[in-house]
Design a protein that fits this description.
Layout (H helix, E strand, L loop, with lengths): L3 H4 L18 H4 L7 E5 L9 E4 L5 E8 L4 H12 L8 H7 L4 H13 L3 E5 L5 E7 H8 L3 E6 L2 E6 L3 E4 L6 E5 L9 E2 L2 E2 L1 E2 L2 E2 L1 E2 L25 H5 L12 E7 L5 H12 L6 E4 L12 H15 L4 E7 L4 H13 L4 E4 L1 E2 L8 H16 L3 E5 L26 E11 L2 E10 L6 E7 L8 H4 L2 E4 L2 E4 L6 E8 L5 E9 L1 H17 L7 H14 L9 E2 L24 E2 L1 H11 L1
Parallel strand pairs: 15-17, 15-18, 16-17, 18-20, 20-21, 21-25
Antiparallel strand pairs: 1-8, 2-6, 3-5, 3-9, 4-5, 6-7, 10-19, 11-27, 12-13, 14-27, 21-22, 23-24, 26-27, 28-29
Cofactor: Ca(2+)
InterPro entries: Peptidase_S8/S53_dom, Peptidase_S8/S53_dom_sf, S53_propep, Sedolisin_dom, Tripeptidyl-peptidase_I
Protein name: Peptidase S53 domain-containing protein
């Protein structure tokens, strides 16, 4: 039997082979009889090569307890009816009266967590998520599991050493407990810096970097871009600025410098400053600047494409754990942000537990039912991102049928203009392919012969190759504690998703209903490819080639590598207006 004392000194699994960690001592097992508890998740089975250390009783842990919604199957049907424009979106009161947990339900969970020593308890506005901070000892008291600090290959984090259980008295309200398997359920930034022969591509000149030539023949075709290029390249400059819209951006950590970085960027380009409102729905750690560059890229890309907004609503999660990110997305949904951009994701959809998938889909189906659109990245690790099954995989939560799944392209301009579109190919780092467990949604029935029986990703791509990326301002503290800024070029699917979200905000501004996207976008694509719909002969820029190693572009067709390609926003707005 493995006793805590044996592993507290850092004993690696490689020393003792493939052993089960579900064995517990008699004193531990006696804390709850089988009749008084309900098991939610089994213990994490260790593998050869793992390094597992039992966490000390005072080690900090954050948990996110997700409550069950009522009538979930019916809510999914409502979401389907909304996105096929067969009915209007649900109001907040409609959603609360029939589908959401009650405040009393959430309070029961909060009281349970408090009784077991947790504090810093947050209840989401929709009563679906109760977040709390405690210790490993509090987790053992509440959920009857010890915790390992687990290192497995490139992944590390928390793993539950024993089955995760809840009192049977709460089984009617609790659907999942997250935060106890972060080693496998952590998102990462999808921002990639452009590299030159001397390292990352940076600007040392005065003012803002722009195009290499203002007239005549340009210096490159696959060019790094200033922000004024992208709206023209993607046809968004033909639409009015999204001045009455709000775009929500999901980030991570301390954002105290994000406004400064954004203002520096905008003022150097002469952009009108869009108010940036930052909130922390479940708290944060001051000084945690891990995701500062991602935040700058997302905000700058959204501002680039919208041409102006009422404001950018920035929701920052306390960590990149996918359950923490869900709390930030939930807050944006609860605030009825019609457009949400998410640039953090796990590379391997196939490695995500079903309970976490269900928690995301539950919240995202409510978003669709309310007419809210979430743009999520497929991630940046190409066709074979190093999943546990060594297979190709898309990112998560981009595999959900309730998001717009966004991959990345390499954008080429014409020989005479940095801001005139020529063509696109697939960026090699763009992930794609079928979801592991999500069945094909109805809106993909028109491409069933391509995607098969599972949800196919991506739906669309936008520029994400760092070599054709966006100049942004990044920052950090040097060894003297002085905050320094520099210009650098970034891409990745983290550029593609906010570019698409910003373009979508312009579509909304032009009068397209905010629940109009999925079914119509697929129908317009079929019409364009088959030349059967004169409303949309050039709505999409179908890619001309490229591969991520697992999937290759089929020029002129919807395909598993690049979906429908990128948007020609002006043509798309016209096509959607004619379909209304």
């Amino acid at each position: 039997m493995l006793r805590p004392a044996m592993l507290s000194k850092g004993l690696a699994l490689a020393c003792w082979g493939l052993a089960s960690i579900g064995v517990v001592d008699t004193a531990f097992a006696a804390q709850a009889s089988p009749a008084s508890k309900v098991t939610l998740n089994e213990a994490v089975a260790l593998q050869a090569g793992d390094q597992a250390t039992l966490m000390g009783s005072s080690a900090p842990v954050r948990v996110n307890v997700v409550l069950k919604m009522h009538n979930p199957a019916e809510l999914q049907q409502i979401a389907e009816a909304v996105r096929t424009h067969q009915r209007n979106p649900l109001s907040d009161s409609d959603l609360a009266n029939r589908y959401l947990p009650t405040r009393a339900d959430a309070q029961r969970v909060s009281d349970f967590l408090h009784a077991n020593g947790f504090d810093q308890i947050y209840i989401s506005k929709d009563n679906v998520i109760v977040t709390a901070v405690g210790t490993s000892a509090n987790v053992q008291s509440a959920f009857k599991t010890r915790l390992y600090s687990l290192h497995r290959g490139k992944r590390s984090g928390v793993a539950n050493a024993d089955p995760v259980s809840i009192p049977s008295s709460l089984s009617d309200v609790i659907g999942a407990v997250h935060g106890l398997r972060s080693y496998a359920e952590r998102g990462t930034s999808a921002a990639k810096v452009a590299a030159s022969t001397k390292g990352k591509l940076t600007w040392k000149g005065k003012g803002a970097p722009g195009a290499e030539s203002t007239e005549g023949v340009v210096a490159c075709r696959e060019c790094v871009h200033g922000p004024t290029d992208f709206p023209s390249l993607y046809g968004a400059s033909n639409l009015a600025p999204a001045s009455n819209q709000v775009v929500a951006v999901i980030g991570v950590g301390d954002q105290s410098n994000t406004n400064y970085l954004y203002q520096t960027w905008a003022s150097n380009y002469g952009f009108p400053f869009i108010p940036l409102n930052v909130t922390y729905p479940t708290g944060y750690t001051p000084g945690d600047y891990e995701a500062q560059t991602e935040a700058a890229l997302d905000v700058d890309a959204v501002a680039t494409m919208t041409g102006g907004l009422q404001n950018i609503a920035f929701y920052s999660a306390p960590s990149t754990n996918l359950d923490d990110e869900l709390t930030a997305v939930t807050a944006a949904i609860n605030d009825n942000r019609s457009t949400i951009s998410l640039s953090f994701a796990a590379s391997c959809d196939s490695d995500i537990g079903q309970d976490l998938r269900t928690s995301w889909d539950q919240e995202l189906s409510a978003a669709v039912a309310k007419g809210i659109t979430v743009f999520a990245v497929t991630q940046d690790d190409g066709g074979y991102p190093g999943c546990s099954n060594n297979q190709s995989s898309t990112g998560f939560p981009a595999s959900s049928p309730y998001v717009v799944s966004v991959g990345a392209s390499t954008l080429f301009n014409t020989v005479d203009s940095y801001s005139t579109y020529d063509h696109e190919t697939l960026w090699t780092g763009s992930e794609s392919g079928p979801a592991a467990t999500e069945p094909r949604p109805a809106y993909q029935n028109v491409v069933s012969n391509i995607v098969g029986s599972m949800r196919g990703t991506p739906d669309f791509v936008m520029d994400g190759d760092p070599n054709s990326g966006l100049w942004i301002v990044t920052g950090g503290y040097d060894s003297t504690g002085t905050y320094q800024t520099e210009w650098a070029v970034y891409g990745g699917t983290s550029l593609a998703a906010p570019l698409l979200a910003g373009t979508y905000a312009r579509l909304l501004q032009s009068g397209i209903p905010p629940y109009f996207w999925q079914q119509n976008f697929y129908e317009l694509g079929v019409g364009q490819v088959n030349h059967t719909n004169t409303d949309c002969v050039s709505c999409y820029n179908l890619l001309t080639g490229g591969s991520n190693g697992a999937y290759s572009v089929v020029p002129g067709q919807f395909n598993q590598a690049s979906g429908w390609g990128s948007w020609n926003a002006g043509s798309l707005a016209t096509g959607l207006q004619l379909q209304r």
